[in-house]
What we know:
By secondary structure, this protein is an alpha/beta fold. The chain has helices spanning 5-11, 25-35, 67-74, 132-144, 146-152, 169-191, 213-231; strands spanning 20-22, 49-53, 58-62, 79-81, 84-86, 89-93, 114-120, 196-201. The strands form 3 sheets. The chain has a 4-stranded antiparallel beta sheet. A two-stranded parallel sheet has the order 1-4. Strand 2 (49-53) and strand 3 form a beta hairpin. The longest helix is centred in the last third of the chain and has 23 residues, at 169-191. The protein is globular.
Amino acid sequence: MALDLLDVAKLIDFSFTGTGIIQGDKVFQVIEEMIGEVMIEDLPISFTAVATDLIKQKEVWIQKGRLVDAIRASIAIPTVFTPKKITERYLIDGGVLNPLPIAPTVSDDTDSTIAVNLSAKVRKDYKIHIPKREREKESGMQEVFSEMAQKAEQLFAREKKSTFDEMGMFDIMGRTIDIMQNAVLDCKMAGYSPDIIIGIPNNACGFYEFNRAYEMIELGRMITRDHLKDNI
């Protein structure tokens, strides 16, 4: 299924509840059409979606039930998507309490475990060729997401500030969240260490730059090839 700019614009259902910028119902209606009424326990490969119980402040592993509900809960980034209610729990992004969940894979019968860290500090500069068609699409998508960016760009624009003198309250808040998540990550990794860690730079793109999907996918492929070449 291919989506053009108009299709994407129609899927952005802004929330007026104050619990998130995007309601997400329209997006996941399309995702459900793509993957169907799939139950996690029927998948050919074991799957665990990690979320966070907003009220009880606990990490939640979703290993049964509707796949689309599990995905929706696990990607409910605070301020972006509204929380997902499953039974009596209000669930948000699992990265709040566990940025790199390895523990759910421990019982799996696998030869190796590969983890992807989205908060890595990568020094190598990757040159990515973006076709003209994709550049035009990115430009159009940027306009589509302009309203969403305007609502929260200050909160997540910390990657654009390089010195303390340039930082505002939201920049400091954002960096504080990064520090806490990295500390949590170190603790989690001490208990469960994967065989290979693929590090994606945390400043690769802005928090709301969804229009740069093509570029980020290509970056992930390039970094993954480097890691696999060096480790396998």
